[in-house]
Amino acid sequence: MTDSDPSAASPPVSSSSATDTPSPPMLCAACAGATASWSSPPPWSDSSPPPAYRPIRAPAINAPTATASIVLAPVPQPLPVPPAEPPYRFEIPSKRISSPDDIRRFHSSEAGRHFVGFVATLSRSVRGRKLSDPVPSPLPAPLSGLLSLLHTLARWIDEIPPLPHASRYGNPAYRSWHARLTDEGHGLVVALFPPSDELHPAADELLPYLLDSFGNAYRIDYGTGHETNFAAFLYCLARLGLIKEDDYPALVLRVFATYLDLMRRLQITYSLEPAGSHGVWGLDDYHFLPFIFGSAQLIDHKYMKPKSIHNQDILDNFSNDYMYLACVGFVKKVKKGVFAEHSPMLDDISGVPNWSKVNSGMLKMYKAEVLEKVPIMQHFLFGSLIKWYVRIHPFGMVVYKMAELSFHLIHS
Question: Checking DSSP bridges between strand 94-95 and strand 381-382, what pairing results, if any?
Fold first, then answer.
């Protein structure tokens, strides 16, 4: 063996001696002193398996389940409101929906199609319009009457303060406020009609819609079903010719915006419980329509995009002009924590590229998640202005037509 042979220079180092070499001590980042040696945790075993992973945004039990059908559904289109023709046969409205078959029957009926079309028409009427934009002055009498009605209800909140109570929701003073509405509601509705008008008997049919527009006095709650009844109240006024299509921008920007402000006061003052809330998987614990109208307001806005809701300066400076931003600001005010965690639906929608897509999606979601849900629509009311479609057997229709013909022959 020669001196140049490297293998003879030193004996081979065994693997055991290599692993036994102490590693340099770990140093503290604060004082640069030596710390205790760190060792990796033991591996998982059958007796101690790793914990099951649960993402922060795990689907809730009440998360929307028909997302694919909503995406594929057609966008509800604006439709004119068919005017009610005399002779009028007003009646006390009643509940008719109790099953999914009833829901399908409602949406296949003329009343169902035109009610959805009415909401879509209101949305179209405020495209690109701010809440502060001018409207015809003076307002038509029915619209100024609606504003007066809402201001009266807001004044009652000051006159009926909340009572001390320990519960999170349901201040009992709300029952006193709603009892006053029940007592004086008929007069408030009659005041919307012209003096000595043949429509005064319609107040009996319109009153239940109005009473159910501000929440339930027994449960002390409010939700999208009550909001829908207010839309139905406006739809009935449109059918009676008191609200014209030219009035729709002012109806949304003045009347509905005032209604929204009133409901926010009622919700906060009397701690109204959300009725049928979707929890984090809902847009808002209480409302849906302002997201439709608010997204329509922002269509083709030059600077603000759906992702702008994450900019607090935009919310602070433009919430007074755009309902959508005001609703997001309210959600951030009443819900604490990371926005993406307490409002994942709104957070996901902020990734949509433009407001037109947001608006069309909101219309489809309103139809699917509000107007097609039995727990919500079972409280919807039907009368002579929003008719319930009654399916008649063909033989029954023949008998009905013969009776109708006999009636005309006798009275001709």
Answer: antiparallel
Q: What is the DSSP string of 119-133?
A: HHHHHHHTTT--TTS
Which pair of tokens denotes residue 141?
């009498």
Query: Which residues, at least 6 apart from 281, have a Cβ–Cβ distance to it below 8 Å?
Result: 59, 60, 62, 63, 64, 344, 345
Q: Which pair of structure tokens corresponds to residue 199?
A: 């429509």
Contact 70, 368 (CB under 8 A): yes
pLDDT tens digits, one per residue of 83-126 = 999 899 999 999 999 999 999 999 999 999 999 999 999 999 99
The alpha carbon dihedral of 230, 346, 327, 163 has a sign of positive
Instruction: Taking the CA atoms of 368, 369, 373 and 378 in sequence, report the sign of the dihedral they define.
Output: negative
Q: What is the pLDDT of residues 249-289, one digit of tens each?
A: 999 999 999 999 999 999 999 999 998 766 555 788 899 99
**H or E element at residue 238:** helix 224-239
Say how far apart CA 65 and CA 404 lie, in whole Å. 47
DSSP string, 140-188: PHHHHHHHHHHHHHHHHHHHSPPPP--SSS--THHHHHHHHHHHHHHHH
Torsional sign, CA 11, 12, 13, 15: negative
